[in-house]
Design goal:
One of its GO terms (biological process) is coenzyme A biosynthetic process. By secondary structure, the protein is α/β, with parallel strands linked by helices. The chain contains 6 helices and 5 strands, in the order βαβαβαβαβαα. The longest helix has 17 residues. The chain is globular and about 50 Å long.
Length: about 170
């Protein structure tokens, strides 16, 4: 009897982009179950709070019944082992991403050989999109609707709204 394959796609998702959403959709087709895991790092100061990111991820992942949202602290590989995940999904935008991600994949495989890393190249139209780029454009009032889902665009507008004078 075949065992269901569980994969984890982790990140800060601050904010979620169409590149992230593309990987979520593709992973949901490759694996029986996917956990979108928000990494919680006490030293980082994200734009969106953990509950805000959790809500945004739950909203955009609703169309994928085999996807759920969670969070973790500490090492991703330890989280994967606790959850019984068989794979870690990582997106690659450029060759520099690959060098960094391969190093992490090797370390993870050394620590927990039963969890493999699966690299998915981003679609060409998302290759340049990053959360930091989206934050930067949105912080100056720019239109990020080509880079992030509508619910995220609305959250960014609200986050960067300046109080009216009067």
């Amino acid at each position: 009897m075949a065992q269901d394959l569980l994969a984890v796609y982790a990140g800060s998702f601050d904010p979620l982009t169409f590149g992230h959403l593309d990987l979520i959709e593709r992973a949901s087709k490759l694996f029986d179950h996917v956990i979108i895991a928000i990494g919680r790092h006490p030293t980082k100061k994200p734009l969106f709070t953990y509950p805000e990111r959790l809500d945004l991820l739950r909203e955009v992942s609703r169309p994928f019944p085999n996807v759920r949202v969670d969070s973790f602290e500490g090492l991703l590989i330890d989280y994967c082992q606790r959850m019984g995940a068989r794979a870690i999904v990582r997106g690659l935008r450029a060759a520099t991403d690959f060098e960094y991600e391969l190093q992490i994949a090797h370390a993870n495989a050394d620590m927990v050989p039963g969890v493999d890393t699966v690299f998915l190249p981003t679609r060409a139209n998302y290759g340049f999109v990053s959360a930091s780029l989206v934050r930067e454009i949105a912080s100056h009032g720019g239109d990020v609707s080509h880079y992030a889902p509508p619910v995220v665009c609305e959250a960014l507008r609200a986050k960067f709204a300046t109080p009216s004078k009067g």
